[in-house]
């Protein structure tokens, strides 16, 4: 800055920016972070570990570490993790006094840090310094009385030490602060562990005054009831009702009180409680009380008066609901359940007829799901409640006729109809029903249920026919093929089973081919057809070169009780390795080599193990450019690659390195020869 003659400060002239357009390449925060991360990766290796052999080196090591910790603390005293690491290191060196000093210095910096207090006290407890730990806990709860961790840890420590009186004293100090509910429960459970029921009762008395919620009063009463103090429990409930009064009366409390009296067989008392609540509570809060009162009267009293009121009220509500929305099937369910509980068969049947008349307007299955359950409940009602078999059959037939089977069906209704006929010992009719279901709307569930029924009846020829139809309908389902083969295996027809498996694996499309092949292989192993099993493995390996197949093949060879089993398993691993090498599958090739190495560790020799070790690859870290979808560069990405010793792709690089080494050696030899020639004197001109 310059000062003019008039004494004013002259500011330097700044060149005006002519072009204020943004630069073509913008530097983003992401780019800066990525470059910073790349520079971190280029840092040098950490120093090698050193072993301390004498006391002088140990002192020097400790001095260096302490200096480093002190430097970190000096840079930023408020970062507590530095203090904790420092104290932890001092503890690991058995310098407990120094660790205490570090913690105390840290507390001077931030005495409200909960983690710091916890670490300090835990250190003292680990080193069995009980009085020191007590001192720390006392200081912590004095400074931070609302930190519940301190209280929990302190009481737990005293209890583990067997100092029950001391733990109780800590609890009492805690309760003076009126903590949250869980703290009170912990104190109560502590007293109950030592059978101090009177003390627990006194705590409950204080607890319900500090936290006067309904649930806490109920817990207090249930505590008294659990310990067989019935009069005390009743007294608690009565005090709770009086405490909340008519203005703040709660239906949960009333129901709990009434259920308590019901459990004590005091049904008249329970009835009085329910009536008191109904008289004093608003009607919109009495629904649950009405319900419980009804249940109570059904069990123990004359239900006529109260149930007439409730049923008429509910009928009115349900009628309004179904009139406003006839397709509200949940309302129909509730209404029907109400009439079923009354036991009037004719009225219930009439209501079922009204309900099923409301067919869903659209032919989408999701709209029919609730509607179908109306038919199911109707049929079950006719069979189980009305005991009218003919009407039950008519309900099932009408339901099947109303479903649009060309678009969708419900396997449940077909199966329920068939099971109903079986219960009536009409097996032929049940078969006709299931046959019609498969003809109209074949589904996996229908086929399986029909087959299960025939298996239970031991009609195996029918099962075969059904399986054939099932596979014609869905040949991609591997589970069906396996179940069919399993049936033939149980029947002892090995050739049929084998033929089924051959047909299955020959299918052009399967949903779970690997499971099917495994089932076929397991079958051949069970039959002890080891040559067939080997052929199966080879056929499977023609389709897939998965590493798990090779490993399973090797395990199969090893499990055969044969002197050459180990060598055959080793040959499988060799073949698998060659195949993986040819397919250039590095990851799977490494997995197979690891499995082979594990096998050689258990069953091989040093020579065979060395053979595998020679083929293990080296893991190298590489980088490649990453491009976004629009083709722009997105930086570099690191990935791991594996270089195998006999990998042909790596040979040119190795040859190039070898040639470069030979050239360097030749250059050095030529330079040394030239220097020797220059040092040797030549013949003089005089001679």
From TrEMBL:
The listed locations are:
Nucleus speckle
Region of interest: Disordered: 664-687
Question: What are its GO biological-process terms?
Answer: spliceosomal complex assembly
Give the Gene3D superfamilies listed for this entry.
Tetratricopeptide repeat domain
Among the entry's GO cellular component annotations, what is one?
Answer: Prp19 complex
Q: What is its main location?
A: nucleus
What Pfam family does this protein match (any one)? HAT_Syf1_CNRKL1_C
- Provide the Pre-mRNA-splicing factor Syf1/CRNKL1-like C-terminal HAT-repeats domain boundaries: 83-301, 389-538
Which UniProt keywords are present, listed alphabetically?
A: mRNA processing, mRNA splicing, Nucleus, Phosphoprotein, Repeat, Spliceosome
Indicate the family of this protein: Belongs to the crooked-neck family.
Cited function: Involved in pre-mRNA splicing process. As a component of the minor spliceosome, involved in the splicing of U12-type introns in pre-mRNAs.
* Full protein name: Crooked neck-like protein 1
């Amino acid at each position: 800055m310059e000062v003019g003659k008039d004494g004013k400060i002259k500011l330097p002239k700044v060149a005006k920016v002519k072009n204020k357009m943004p630069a073509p390449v913008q530097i983003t925060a992401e780019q800066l972070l990525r470059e910073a991360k790349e520079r971190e990766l280029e840092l040098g290796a950490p120093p090698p570990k050193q072993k301390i052999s004498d006391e002088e080196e140990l002192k020097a090591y400790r001095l260096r570490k302490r200096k480093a910790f002190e430097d970190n603390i000096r840079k930023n005293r408020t970062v507590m993790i530095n203090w904790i690491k420092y104290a932890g290191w001092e503890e690991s060196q058995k310098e407990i006094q120094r660790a205490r000093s570090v913690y105390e210095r840290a507390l001077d910096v931030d005495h409200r840090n909960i983690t710091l207090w916890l670490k300090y006290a835990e250190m003292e407890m680990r080193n069995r310094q009980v009085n020191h730990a007590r001192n720390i806990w006392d200081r912590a709860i004095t400074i931070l009385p609302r930190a519940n961790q301190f209280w929990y840890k302190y009481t737990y420590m005293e209890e583990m030490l067997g100092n029950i009186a001391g733990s109780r004293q800590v609890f009492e100090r805690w309760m003076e602060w009126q903590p949250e509910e869980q703290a009170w429960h912990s104190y109560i459970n502590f007293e109950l562990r030592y059978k101090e029921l009177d003390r627990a009762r006194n705590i409950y008395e204080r607890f319900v005054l500090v936290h006067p919620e309904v649930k806490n009063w109920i817990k207090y009463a249930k505590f008294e009831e659990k310990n067989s103090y019935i009069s005390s429990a009743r007294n608690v409930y009565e005090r709770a009702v009086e405490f909340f009064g008519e203005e703040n009366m709660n239906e949960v409390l009333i129901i709990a009180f009434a259920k308590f009296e019901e459990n004590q067989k005091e049904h008249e008392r329970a009835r009085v409680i329910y009536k008191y609540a109904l008289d004093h509570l608003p009607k919109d809060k009495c629904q649950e009380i009405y319900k419980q009162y009804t249940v109570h009267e059904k069990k123990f009293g004359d239900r006529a008066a109260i149930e007439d009121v409730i049923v008429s009220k509910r009928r009115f509500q349900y009628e309004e609901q179904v009139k406003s929305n006839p397709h509200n099937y949940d309302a129909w369910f509730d209404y029907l359940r109400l009439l079923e509980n009354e036991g009037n068969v004719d009225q219930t049947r009439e209501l079922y007829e009204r309900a099923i008349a409301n067919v869903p307007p659209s032919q989408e299955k999701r709209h029919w799901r609730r509607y179908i359950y109306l038919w199911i409940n109707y049929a079950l009602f006719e069979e189980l409640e009305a005991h009218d078999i003919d009407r039950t059959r008519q309900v099932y037939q009408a339901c099947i006729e109303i479903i649009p089977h060309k678009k969708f069906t419900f396997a449940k209704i077909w199966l329920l109809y068939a099971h109903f006929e079986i219960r009536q010992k009409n097996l032929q009719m049940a078969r006709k029903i299931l046959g019609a279901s498969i003809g109209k709307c074949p589904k996996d569930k229908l086929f399986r249920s029909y087959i299960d029924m025939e298996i239970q009846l031991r009609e195996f020829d029918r099962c075969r026919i059904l399986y054939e139809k099932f596979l014609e309908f869905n040949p991609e389902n591997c589970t069906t093929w396996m179940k069919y083969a399993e049936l033939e295996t149980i029947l002892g027809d090995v050739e049929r089973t084998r033929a089924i498996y051959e047909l299955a694996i020959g299918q052009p499309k399967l949903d779970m081919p690997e499971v099917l092949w495994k089932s076929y292989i397991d079958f051949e192993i069970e039959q002890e057809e080891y040559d067939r099993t080997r052929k199966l493995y080879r056929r499977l390996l023609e389709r897939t070169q998965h590493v798990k197949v090779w490993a399973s093949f090797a395990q199969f060879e090893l499990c055969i009780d044969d002197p050459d089993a180990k060598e055959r398993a080793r040959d499988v691993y060799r073949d698998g390795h060659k195949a993986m090498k040819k397919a250039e599958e590095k990851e799977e090739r490494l997995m197979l080599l690891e499995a082979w190495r594990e096998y050689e560790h258990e069953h091989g020799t040093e020579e065979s193990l060395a053979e595998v070790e020679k083929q293990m690859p080296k893991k190298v870290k590489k980088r490649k450019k990453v491009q976004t979808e629009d083709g722009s560069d997105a930086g570099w990405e690191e990935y791991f690659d594996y270089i195998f010793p006999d990998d042909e792709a790596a040979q040119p690089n190795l040859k190039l390195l070898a040639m470069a080494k030979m050239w360097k050696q030749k250059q050095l030899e030529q330079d040394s020869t030239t220097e020797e020639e220059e040092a040797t004197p030549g013949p003089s001109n005089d001679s």
